[in-house]
Amino acid sequence: VAALTFINEQSDNKLFNILFGEGVVNDAVCIVLYNVVLKMLASGEPMTFSTPFIMFNNFVGLIIISMLFGAVSAIACSIFFKKLKESNVLLSRVQEISIVIIMGFLVYTLSEKINLSPILALQTNGICMAQYTYYNLSFQSREESSLMTKLFTHVAEGFMFVYLGLTSVTYLAETVSWSFIVWQIVILMFCRYV
């Protein structure tokens, strides 16, 4: 995320999208992998030769189901707006944008509740909604939803940097294991090199 602050989205849109997508997918993969390992450890089953294969199947299955959940919910939202448009039901632009935002919130919370990856479900939902639902909205809602998305993005980004800054100062006051930090950096550099 820090790298994204140095890139202007308007001037280099493709690089911005690549870095943003890579960052989100990295986070999602880490969380899904953590949940798979935690679930396997909580089951109490002994480690066998087949355990890594079972974990890999659970990992891939969780990713695919999360992405399908996000895509299906986006398509359902798109069909909803299309049916409203066809039946000449007019919603205000506030109502349309509210439904889109609520749909994203529902996708996130439901996928979390049914033990899927909410990050992947929401990302897939956003991609599909941008491709399909966006064109079923009124012209004013399209423009204002883009502005609302940018507004929420900047507010969330600012909150995240402030929160990380405050928590880092708080944790520095506590005991810090410098050997742990150095080993993590060495391991990270080695893994990045490989």
How would you describe what is shown here?
This protein has 194 residues and is an all-alpha fold. The chain contains 6 helices and no strands. The chain has helices at residues 13-43, 51-86, 93-113, 118-131, 139-173, 178-193. The protein is globular, with a radius of gyration of 21 Å. The two termini are 23 Å apart. The relative contact order is 0.09.
Given as residue ranges, the uncertain stretches (5+ residues, pLDDT < 50) are: none
Biggest sheet layout: none
Number of helices: 6
Helix content: over 70%
Question: Count the strands?
Answer: 0
Summarize the structure.
The protein contains 6 helices and no strands. By secondary structure, it is mostly helical. The mean pLDDT is 83.
Task: Give the SSE map.
Layout: H1 13-43, H2 51-86, H3 93-113, H4 118-131, H5 139-173, H6 178-193
Helix pairs in contact: 1-2, 1-4, 2-3, 2-4, 3-4, 3-5
